[in-house]
Design goal:
The chain is mainly alpha-helical. It has one domain. It has four helices and two strands, in the order ααααββ. It has a two-stranded antiparallel sheet with strand order 1-2. β1 and β2 form a beta hairpin. α1 crosses α2. The longest helix is centred in the N-terminal third of the chain and has 14 residues. The model has no long low-confidence stretch (mean pLDDT 86).
Length: 71
C-alpha cells in the first residue's frame, strides 16, 4: 500500500540528514516521490500532498504553496 511506503520513507528521512536535505530542496511533491522511488519507496506526489498537515514520527508533512510565474 502506498501509504505504508510513504510513512516508511518519511521515517527513513528522519534518520538520514542527506536525504532530508534532498527532500527539502525538491520543488514539487512529484519530485519527492521520484527521490523516494530511487530508494525503493513507491507513492505518488498526490498521495504525499494528501498527507499535508499530518505528522509521521518527527516529520510533519507540509504543503508549500508557491506562486505561479508570470511573464
Amino acid at each position: 500500500m502506498a501509504l505504508d511506503q510513504l510513512e516508511a520513507f518519511l521515517q527513513k528521512m528522519q534518520t538520514e540528514p542527506e536525504l532530508k536535505n534532498q527532500v527539502l530542496a525538491a520543488s514539487t511533491a512529484d519530485d519527492v516521490a521520484r527521490i523516494a522511488l530511487k530508494l525503493g519507496f513507491e507513492f505518488s506526489g498526490d498521495e504525499l500532498l494528501r498527507m499535508s498537515g499530518k505528522k509521521v514520527g518527527k516529520v510533519t508533512v507540509k504543503k508549500n504553496d508557491l506562486p505561479g510565474e508570470y511573464n
